[in-house]
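Support reply, case 0932

Customer input (verbatim):
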Amino acid sequence: MRKAEIGLLFTFSGLSLLGIFSHEIWLDEAHHWLFARDSQTVQELWINMRYDGHPILWNLMLFGITRFSQDVTLMQMLNVCISVAAVAVFLFFSPFNLLEKMLFMSGYFILYEYTVISRNYALLMLFLFLAVVFYRKKNYVLLSLVLALLANTHLFGLAFASFFVAMVSFEFISERKERMSKQVLIGCLIFLLGAIISLWQIIPPVDSNLYTHAQKSPPLERLERTSTVFLKAFVPIPDFTDYHFWNSNLLMSISKPLCAILSSILFCIPFFLFKNRFSLLLFFLAVQPSWYYLSIYQTSTRCDTTGRSI
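Our regenerated output:
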């Protein structure tokens, strides 16, 4: 028994429960809860969320628990369970040392953004971690099933799953010269079905305001958003001098041109880290176009009074 990891998992679970019982539901959390609660059938749920831009999996899980109770605490408990499961996969299957595992599980995003805030982020995290586990075990059927589910968690879940498949396919073709096995073919069909279902839900109707906002957003504005992504990821320091510091960055407030330069430097680092692993470099380069879509998505999503996207 790995007592240290078990202790960390219990600690994370306790802090998560403490967090949700001290957390007021935000509008972007209630947004999905209301979809599920006020839909009488799965078909009605599908119709109600057709403009949402998210796959149905998280809302479908909420739909299931709202058949038993309309207490929103159940949504929070469900999200905590998913997050704890994801952290458990990380603690017991990752190659990191105990200190690195502790730092990971106590980080802002893992402990708060993906756990205390009840959204589809924890679900994405769980399936992404499981995908890595099944990839290392070379179980392509379970890997494809998990990637199909990952594709139905979020827009970026679809992106990550697709690029993961591209990476695995490249490694399979370049390192395995034999013919594709039955397991691999079945896995490909499973993922393809999951990706099609996800796309069917994500692409909004033609009268959605997403297209209008995307056309109005200037290309230079979207380029500015994407050019500083790496800096914001590596140096996530909010601008606490601003009362509304949510989603802000201190360095961005000081100098945007400097941030663009530093971000470009950070962008080049993976080229050195993955220079001998072309498949990982391919995955890194493939993920980057998704940030361009994010810049469009951020300018087109509705926001609540706190500035958070709904």
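We compared this against your earlier run and they match. Two observations from our side: Residues 123-203 form one domain. The two ends are 42 Å apart (CA to CA). Please reopen the case if you see a mismatch on your end.
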